[in-house]
Amino acid sequence: MDEPGESSAARLLSHPGVQRFPSSRLDLFILREFLSAERCAQLIDLIETNNRPSTIADYNGDDAFRTSSTCDLSRNYPVVDELAQALSRLSGIDLAYAEPLQGQRYEVGQEFKAHTDYFEPDSADFEKYCKVPGQRTWTFMIYLNDVEAGGATRFKVIDKMIQPETGKLIGWNNRRADGSCNAATLHHAMKVRKGRKYVITQWYRERPWG
Ligand SMILES: O=C(O)CCC(=O)C(=O)O
Ligand SMILES: [Fe+2]
């Protein structure tokens, strides 16, 4: 039985089509066609109608660090609720441990430079963002469209580039087996060169979101 807030390789690999990236440093999984093109189009419409400039925790003085737009996706929309539930079934993580889903839109030239999704345990923001729900455990991200050029997600430490593709899901464990933060999860949402890129992200926590 997995800990609450935790998925596992066994759980993910029991789902047809899930592939594991071979690495001893990082648990990273890929599932193509997780979402249909129709669902992706509906979610893109939602992101287009309601978005704001993206922000980062642990501000590092670089205003160009994350230049995309973010959309908070309410589960009051049936298409969002259905997605949150499908992710919970896939990951095996109870929805109580899920942050609200977020959409991101990148226009030409926009990116999210190399970062990790966990909060630095000794940072000022750790207390603010993790006091109640705890650390981020797993990340699942779905690409909603094929990008004409650019926009890959590059995992620098393990030297893996993942190309956006309509409906493709990737997921990884932000921590090692002993619970420590895994710096090999460092990833860079590279600049879009042509077209737009849309993704949806689900982060899970150690404790219920509240
Ligand atoms: O857009 C991507 O490829 C990655 C997004 C990401 O890393 C994030 O939102 O934390
Ligand atoms: Fe990220």
Automatic annotation (TrEMBL):
Gene3D superfamilies: q2cbj1_9rhob like domain (2.60.120.620)
Stated name of the protein: Oxygenase
Keywords associated with the record: Dioxygenase, Iron, Metal-binding, Oxidoreductase, Vitamin C
Organism of provenance: Novosphingobium resinovorum
Cofactor(s) this protein cannot do without: L-ascorbate
Claim: Iron is one of the keywords in the record: yes
Highest taxon of the lineage: Bacteria
Keyword field contains Transmembrane: no
Record GO terms (molecular function): iron ion binding; L-ascorbic acid binding; procollagen-proline 4-dioxygenase activity
Annotated Fe2OG dioxygenase domain residues: 97-206
Pfam families reported for this sequence: 2OG-FeII_Oxy_3
